Model the fold of this input.
Amino acid sequence: DFSFLRRLENFHPLPPSSLPNQLPPSPETTLPSLLSRNAYRPAAIFAADALSGPHSLPPQEIFELWYTRLACLTLIDLTPLAAQESLVLGDIHSAYYIIDEDEDEDDGSGNEGKRGECILPWHLCVLVTRLQNMNSRAQVQGYYDLAVYARRQLQALKARDPSEKTTQTKTLWTNRLQDLSYRIGNALIEMDDIAAAKRHFASLVVHQHPHTSTNAEDENEKGMLELWIAMLSLKMGDLDSARKWLEEGTQQPSHEGVPEPKWNRVKDGLLKPFLSITDGHFDDAASAWRDRAIGDEDYDGVLARQNQAVCLLYAGKLSESTSILQSLVDEGHAFRALTFNLATVYELQTEAARQRKGAPMGKGK
Done:
């Protein structure tokens, strides 16, 4: 009986929206159409209305609507409200949500062959674990609890006779365990325990992606992990370790017709310039940032040009640095770091800095 998940008092009214065209969904609107238009606020309202409505709903539809409600609240920056509403679900590891092993196999519930499994969808379990444990330390514990359950399911599958169906399910549970391992690392970073996060990701490189693997997908995953470890090493100030992970890590040769992996582009275009900066090679770093910005008109390209200007400033090329920063403002870009850096070069360049700093006002997007 999941009627307690459909009570009207479970759902809080949303605060007024400052966004235009955020009207409540009409009776003719469907949830997929709202989600396809990224209309997350109306979708959250729609899900709550459907859950608290008079129509009968099967359990799986109830759970999917709950996931939509909570996910949409987080996407519109109402995570505290989503965390409060998620408490209605209670302990997701409770026996209440476990499919009864004593039920008949052919009971028409659609749960045949799933005895002992949690009836809640996996993605809902992961989201609720995060929302019910907003403290990062508690999140780590919650993810480990989910990992224990996932390993138990994987062991049960391995104990059965292998078949195409169970092989696919084994892969599914293995991927879920891998996803949890990444989430644990992210939670450690949010705790600002960078050293623990680095050790955690390093252990994943050894255990999940052995050096003997020749699978291209494994190599890509391993390359991303090594990239994260190098970035964490930089954040810790451990330059030797960062350089080691960059130089001795997975190498992905470029082949004609095969796109270069994203981690390889980030390694060459982001981390290597940072290492040049730490070594005091500002001209080399400026050249690397310039190369990264070429042909990249999105936000990453804008940041690369700004970083190029900062490196030129440290290299003593004040006029070139000012020209790049000023061109970014003239193109309509505006963010805090750009404003600060432009004000800095104005202060260094002229005594009339006050007038020059007021000139760009109103040019940003």
